[in-house]
Structures are given as C-alpha cells and as structure tokens.
Design brief:
This protein has 19 helices and 14 strands. By secondary structure, the protein is α/β, with parallel strands linked by helices. It folds into three domains: 49-276, P-loop containing nucleotide triphosphate hydrolases (Rossmann fold, 3-Layer(aba) Sandwich), CATH 3.40.50; 279-446, Rossmann fold; 492-544, no CATH class. The strands form two sheets. A seven-stranded parallel β-sheet has the order 3-4-2-5-6-1-7, with helices on both faces. A seven-stranded parallel β-sheet has the order 10-11-9-12-13-8-14, with helices on both faces. The protein starts with 48 loop residues before the first helix and ends with a helix.
Length: 548
Amino acid sequence: MPESTRQSNTGGPARARRRPRGPQQGAGRAGASRGSGRTGGRPADTGSEESAYASAYTTLTPAPPAAATFAELDLPAALTEELDRQGVTVPFPIQGATLPSSLAGRDVLGRGRTGSGKTLAFGLALLARTAGQRAEPHQPLSLVLVPTRELAQQVTDALTPYARALRLRLATVVGGLSIGRQASALRGGAEIVVATPGRLRDLVERGDCRLDKVVITVLDEADQMADMGFLPQVTALLNQVVPGSQRMLFSATLDRNVDTLVRRFLSDPVVHAVDPSAGAVVTMEHHVLHVTSEDKRAATVRIAARDGRVLLFLDSKRAVDRLAKTLLANGVRAAALHGGKSQPQRTRTLAQFKTGEVTALVATNVAARGIHIDDLDLVVNVDPPADHKDYLHRGGRTARAGASGSVVTLVLSEQRRDMERLMAKARITPQTAKVHSADEELARITGARVPSGVPVTIPVPAPATPAAGTSARRGGGRRRPRSGGGTATAGSGRSGAGRTGTGGAGRTGGGAGRTGGGSGRGGSGGSAGGSAGRSGGARASQTRRRAA
C-alpha cells in the first residue's frame, strides 16, 4: 500500500554527467535525450554533503504535467481495477509526478523518505510496461534491486496483487533462503525479479539467471546499497541489462556514492523530491532525552512496557539479544531482530510484531529499511545512530502515510555533542529534556510505565507460507552443489528428522548438512542424519549471513 506525507517538491540547478549510452540509446523511451552535461565540479562543502547533492539535480528535458488521478495515466484497465480494489484512489506526490514520465520510458531519479509512496511510483510503471509480455526461462524482463531481504519482501508484497491482475510472474531472490527454489522459479519464467545484489549475482554466476533481456531496472533505497558496499555488485549487474534501457533510481538520501550511480547509469532523468528530511514531516516529533548511564536500562524497560507497540534500536546483535531477554523477564512481550537470525525467524518475528503478539521489537539497523508496520507511533534509539542517514531511516518506520509518530533518542552525557552534530546534519531541531525513569515527563512523551514483572514467553508460530520464488526448500531435496551457497534455512535437517525419525529423515538432514559442509548422509538412522543436518545447516548459516 503506498504511503506518503504530502510535501512540496524541491529542485536545484542542473547537474549530472552521464556515461554515454550503448547503441540502443533511447530504446523504448519517449522523449529521452542522450545524456546531459555536468555544470560544475563537486558540490561545495556546506556542512551537509547530502544536502548539497540533493539540491544539485533537476529535470533537464521538460517532464509531462503531474497526474492528479490514476485515471489520467495510461494504465492497463486491469491495473486500474486492482487499484480500486486495493483502495488506492489518489496518487501520492512522488507517484503523480513521476508516473507520466516513467510510463513513457523516461529514466527517473526519485528522492523521498521511506513511506513516501516510492514502491508504487516505480512499481506501477514497471508493471504497466511489462504487461502482455512473457519471459523465457532464466531471462526476466524487469528487475528491482533492493539492499535487504526485508525490503525485498515488502516490495514483493506490495506488487503481488497488481502483478497477479496482469498475469505477470514475480520472483523474489534473496540470501538466506533456498537458492535452489529461487533458481527453479527463474527456470519456470518470471517477468519481474525483485532481488538483493548478492543473491542475484550468485544466480547469474551459476547460469540460473541472465539479464540481457531486462529492459526496466529499478534501484530502490540506492543509498543503503551504497552504504552496505554493494556498489561493485550493482554496477556489474547494471552492465548486463539491455544498453539504453529504462532505469529508475529511488533513494531516501543523495550523497557521493549515489551520485556515482546517477552519473553513470541514468540518462536525462525526471527528477522529483518529496520529504527532503525527516524534519520536514510535520506529523513526526523528535525528542532527545538525556539520561544517566545508571538509569538508562530502567528507562528503556519502562518505555518498552508502554501500552502499544514500540521499535527499539541498538547498535549490536549482542545488545539486542540482551535487552530482549531483559524485557521478557520483566513482563514485556519482546522479540529480537538482527542479521544473526535466519530469514524465516526474521519473517515470523515481524509477523508477530505486526499482529501485536510482540509489542516491543528490539532491533539493529537491519530493521531500519524495508519494514512497514501500520500505525507504529514510537521509535526509540536506545543507542544513538552513527550518522544522520541512519537516524532518518530508523525514524522512517513511524509517521508513515501521513500518520503521526515520535522518534525518541536516549543520550548519555558523553554523547550529547555528537548527537547535536547529527541533528544539525539531518536538519532537525528536536525537543530536549533531562529525564529519569520514574519521571512523569518520560511517561508523557513515550507512554512509559512500570512493567508487570511477571516473566513472559513468546510462542514460536507455525512457519508462514513463503512467497513464490522465496520459500525455504522442504525435505532437504537435492540441489546443485556450490561452494558457499546458502541453504534453505538453518535447521532444515531438524525439520526432516522430526517428520519421520527414519533413515529417510537422516538423508533429509544430511542434505542440509552436505550443502553446509557437513555429512549427514552417512547416518544410519534418522537421529544421526538429522544431527549431521543440524551441524551442516548451522555452518551454512554462518556463511549465509555474509550474503545479502
């Protein structure tokens, strides 16, 4: 579902050096010109590199007028009908501004905070322009690159009903899930692929995916892909798509790394910016609460015990696990979310948080992007973020689609100066207060209250049905061996052993173990094979965490 906080557009002087396009320059484009020139050097250091780059782009070739309604757009009837069924009636600013151009084949550079409606801004154009075509095995026609598994799943969930209405096949390929099942989805044919760079690179190297038929490419959350070190992989993948084909880049922030992608891969893009910073979101409140190191834990526990959901960010996986255990021991229905969890675990934890079974989600930055929780009204930085971009992305989990929300940061005395600099770069003037865990002011701002003190446990739910092309392989079926390849999930051997307890179960567990480097197949019974499968699956899990 698209979301937005409606803001005015921003622009700046023309600025972009583009790499000359290939021999198919302009193929499939309407009105796109061949590259544009840079009007000067790098932006001056104004104290905010992101701000300088953000003001450095504007549309050179005039774009069509923004659309006020979806009826004004040249969308397939099936797509318009599905929009009505989904209750999407009025385009959000970034959608209305970019869709007339993207539907005509123009490149797009969209800048907006998370929650501004970017997914349908590129998704509707991608779907409409792909409609009526059929992909050959292993050869998708459209590609969406995202930095994280969570964002890939969110994009998939958002586009699936519209793709289904157009009879388009969509495959999601991410690390942490069965590469064999993902290869199978591509082999069956998928017009649209949503992927993280690392896993897509693996599939390309295996020969399970070719990109030479891709004519529409989207980079979503390009700034985080750059921050996570994916630029070499992204560049290599973009070099394999059809030269001169349509490219759309969407990013919450623009900096030097994103500028590199824009200059190299976008040709005379339509530029649109909305919500230039979290500070421009009038429905979002920002609070910096000064606490003592002795009282910080007590304040955090009381905040987490509030009546309602809360997302708490910490710096490390160990700190996240420690706080989650503390909260559970104090009667708070908490769960941990970080990169050390398997993808199925992360998916189930998010589902529990969305339904309210978990009320306090304790997370590292893995949750700062690609997670949409309806009506989440409080985000707490238990550990202050490292830079202003992290702050904006953490805060972007609340105050979405025009809803209200608060971002609270707990700051120790030695962190005050760094926090002041961070807020200045983010162009935010927060409300500040010195608080104690028992203060009424803390309760007023966050809803903090004394926890029950009665320990609770969160039951492990039944595994959710995965999306097509992303589901974990069941039963440890055979796959092409590949060094370093991800397994279905850690513990797939356990699943097989649990079902039968026979020699067959041992082979199932051994299947997981073989991929992870173990040898479960030699087990004479279900117990032995399942044990080896668990061991191998655990080793494979360690390898998998390094993949996107």
